Amino acid sequence: MSTELILASVIFVTIGFILVAVFVLTRYIGPKDEEAQMKNTVYESGVSNPVGNTNIRFSIKFYLVAILFVLFDVEIIFMFPWAVNIKELGYLGLFEMFMFMGLLFSGLIYIYKKKALSWD
Fold first, then answer.
1. Where are the transmembrane segments (predicted)?
2. Residue 103, domain member (yes or no)
């Protein structure tokens, strides 16, 4: 067995013992918290005792709007590198970006026609 392997294993075991010792010692040496029950209670926006059930069902429109926001937000991020390199890309880059924005706009029109953004 090489000396490097023995040294590495000794260091690994020593670090393991030190970590275990630190966790055990903090359990016994650290301050005792008598208010731990208060820390484990529910706290929602200043209300200590929440009213109602937390397992309510949300409308699918919340999720749909969130997904659409992420979709359009990520696609708009693709416009920043184009804006930085607009001079190097020339007219072909301008045409490609207008095609990209046209696809985005057609997707927005499709979503609007499907009434996905109406809250009725």
1. 6-29, 62-83, 89-112
2. yes
Q: What residues contact residue 48 under an 8 Å CB cut-off, 6+ apart?
A: 41, 42
Distance between CA atoms of 116 and 64, rounded to whole angstroms?
8
Distance CA 22, CA 16 (A): 10
Terminal-residue alpha carbon distance, the chain:
74
Q: Which mean pLDDT values do the consecutive 10-residue runs of the chain (120 residues) have?
A: 90 97 88 67 63 72 84 84 87 90 90 81
- Tell me whether residue 1 is in a domain: no
Task: Look at the pTM and tell me if it is higher than 0.85.
Answer: no
